[in-house]
Amino acid sequence: VYQPGSLHPDEYSVEVLEALNPEVIVVAAYGVILPSRIVNLPALGCLNVHPSLLPKYRGAAPVPAAILNGDDTSGVTLIKLDEGMDTGPIIAQREASVYPDDTTERLTRRLFEHGATLLIDTLPQWAGGDIVPFPQDEKRATVTRRLSKKNGEIDWMHSAPEIERQIRAYYPWPGSYTRWNGKQLKIITAFAVPGSTLEPGVVFRLADRRVAVGTGGGIILLKELQIAGKQVVDACEFVLGRTDFVGSVLGF
Description:
- By secondary structure, the protein is of the alpha+beta class.
- It is built from 6 helices and 12 strands.
- It is elongated, with a radius of gyration of 22 Å.
């Protein structure tokens, strides 16, 4: 395993790879486009294990995109790299379910487990010339962008299901957060309840004492919270000693 920070054509890292004279190079979760000097180096090419069913969700954030969009199926794709971003011909694909409680952390781990198995199953056939790669359908291509901390800010005007998907999609990074009493409040775990709608961002308690927040459609039940500088705690525990939390408006 070799993980250089960059692969400019004239850098030492390129010379290291050339000296290895590899039959094949496999790239996984490596956010650098390989220069042609590397792409054309191995006899069997450079292969990429990508955690989506290409051409859907090319780019830097395919797993969060699948959760954000409410997909119930994702998968992994093995492609032969070219000089584009996830644009190379497809060698093999395998579908995988997206579960209702999946976070990006959990789904990423599962997809790359599928990807490792797919790679092991496929490499002998690829080396033997038994697989003919096929081009991606550019008409179906979608691209994801690199996430930033700003993406994690919750807009309480969105619907409860949208906010729940955001919280799962952005865990563990960049995380989903709002503001309360001028401090950042991370929402670690929460669940959407469709139907009843209260004023967006307003915190209230249900009859069973659970803590919830109004949204643009439905309510969000808060499960785990983390105020800046403190540990993650259960929402019911968070309320203890913070009597002004219930009834407040989040986002300020």
